[in-house]
Amino acid sequence: MIKKTLITTAIDYANDVIHIGHAYEKILADAFARYQRLINGKENVGFVTGTDEHGTTNEKAAKKLGIETQKHVDNISDQNKKEIDALDISYNRFIRTTDEDHKKVAADFFKKSFDNGDIYKGSYEGLYCEGCESYKTLTELNENGQCTLHTTREIQKYQEENYFFRWAKYSDILKTLVLSERFVLPDGKKKEMLSFIENGIQDIPVTRPKYKLPWGITCPIDDSQVIYVWFDALINYFTYGSENNLWDNETEIVHFVGKDIARWHVLLWPAMLASVGYKLPTTIYVHGFINLEGEKISKSKGNVIKPSELVNKYGVDAVRYYFLRYGPIVEDVDISVKHLEDVYNGELANGLGNTVARIAKLAQNSGIDFGDFDFATFSGDDLKMFDQFHDFRVDLVIQNIWKKLSLLDKHINENEPWKIKDQDKLKEVLTYEVGEIRNITKILGPFLPSTQKKIEAVFNKSFIKVGENLFPRL
Ligand code: MSP
Question: Is residue 30 part of a domain?
């Protein structure tokens, strides 16, 4: 049986352009997608990212600017795509929830859930956070009555007629899923998800009246309502997957999400899928948050950095490396531009760049023929270096590669090939060193795709030439 993989990231709201916090997840998922393509073939991998364009947040952002909502989301989606492209994210589709195919798939999904008896008419009276696009209970607010994640926004009071999804009905199924191995990772996240279930899952409104929020997908069973933005947005994964033969039992479905939205993916999404009888996701991988110099990244704090700003200054692979190696793969992390620069100088300019340059120069000066090399075939030893991808620990995979690199650097320093006069001895030492750098280069692709290509161009043929400076010192 062919194993296919569908990899997704959360789709970003289109109220404002993404910052480096949002970008982390894209880089993480991209490294995993590139790895899957290496081991399973690119025809067996689908990777989708995009923008979440309906709902109150997006509509209000457009209103504030005095422009049509569609124009606003077109503009932001376009800018987000450029940011993501600047990071060399190898998505197969950049999906937008305003895409016609998605609107149709989402409406059909809703209708199917309704036909199966899981959606019913009701009325909601309660609280809503527009930042989370989520219904809230009093116990979820801080002592000032604000959402703990969006303290600059006012909590809204809603009283309206809408349609509810029978979420509570799926509590037992969800509990079994959460307890099962690898459904939610890292394991530390299980407890939080179980406590949501134990506190009692309530049925949830899945439409909003159009007279209050016209910006959404028209509800297929009542055109005076639009589909609730989370119900609509989660279906994006299925839109892409089902259209690309990637929503079946031969496909492993992996969702990468941040900790603030784990609950929607771990608890609501599987219930929605169970309601229509479609395959459930295989794994939901939940990462932590990036803070910048001890502060939450936010527009109101004025500390927003766009991915492209870092890429323009340090180069795409340096940015990728930094986030993959030091990003919030499990817990939140605190980053700073100073730390990024230290890492750049220490691990990229000095570590990788310098080692590559030294070996290339020694190899070229030696005039020795090192033979051609196959960068595309992976041995058991190569694949072993990727072992920790099993737990999505991209940081540890990189750590191991850099260990190998520093051992190689040590080998060069100890053997001092530039001093060796005996040709046979020189050949032996350099053959080992060229071989090692080639082996390291081979496995760099998921993390530093363009650097890999550059090193490959220097080391691929028997004649080794000195390449450009990979990471010029800052
Ligand atoms: N639109 C919803 C997701 C719908 S998925 C069907 C949403 N959008 S978001 O723009 O607010 O966030 C997108 C992703 O970025 C989420 O996974 C979120 O956790 C992540 N991050 C936002 N800020 C972040 C950091 N500071 N650090 C790491 N990830 C962060 O939620």
Answer: yes
Query: pLDDT of 108-163, one tens digit each?
Result: 999 999 999 999 999 999 899 999 999 998 888 998 889 988 988 899 999 999 99
Residue 326 falls within a domain, yes or no?
Answer: no
Report the pocket of ligand 1 as residue ranges, CB < 6 Å.
10-13, 21-22, 24-25, 52, 233-234, 257-258, 260-261, 289-290, 297, 328
- Nearest C-alpha neighbor of 227 from the set 208, 243, 255, 244: 208
The residue from 136, 150, 175, 404 that is catalytic is 150
Name the residue of 11, 20, 22 to mutate for ligand 1: max ligand atoms within 8 A of Cβ. Answer: 22
| Residue matched to tokens 């607010």 | 141
Q: How far apart are CA 17 and CA 237, in angstroms?
A: 21
Q: Identify the domain containing residue 427 by its residue range.
A: 336-459
* CATH code, domain with 359: 1.10.730.10
Is pTM beyond 0.85 here? yes
Answer yes or no: do 125 and 183 share one domain.
Answer: yes
Q: Are residues 246 and 341 in the same domain?
A: no
Count structural domains, the chain: 2
Same domain? For 63 and 134 the reply is: yes
Which residue puts its alpha carbon closest to atom 24 of ligand 1? Answer: 21
What would the pLDDT profile of 307-346 be if each residue is shown by its tens digit?
999 999 999 999 999 999 999 999 999 999 999 999 999 9
Cα–Cα distances in angstroms (integers) from residue 245 to residues 44, 271, 305, 382, 415, in the given order:
10, 22, 37, 30, 54
Three-state DSSP state, 96: strand
